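Collaborator request, handled under Task 6.
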Amino acid sequence: MNKSNVTAEQTRQLETHAATIGHNLGPALDEHAGEIQAKVAEHPELRHYAAEIRVMFDMMRSHLSGEYLLPQKTLAFVFGGLALVAVMTTAGIVTEPFPTLLLDAAVLGFTTAALAGDIQQYVEWRAARDPSYKAVRSELAGKA
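Structure tokens returned to the collaborator:
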């Protein structure tokens, strides 16, 4: 399992900012997920995070459907990370002011690092139920 290399201070700052997003953003993010993911594949700074972003969208959907409930801290990071990606890809669905202050691929890197264990756990859970998800697991393993 991957260990996060995010400092306690970075984690606290991300939690504070991500918690301001709220669950009401989930449906809007889900509605634009395909568009956002297509733009991520072309974005020079985000392309590296494409697999993690896909998993974060899947984690969000699983949580919203009640299929795989995420802990509050993880949920805040997932919504915060996806909101940041939406802003960075100019999807324009996020109206929260904090992403403009944090508009940087490094912040997404911190977010995915903080979620590394949760992402791995979700991928294992999902791959056990959906054989097609083993490709995602392989892709993430290739990045390690």
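The cover message to the collaborator said: "The chain has nine helices and no strands. Residues 8-143 form one domain. Please let us know whether this matches your experimental observations."
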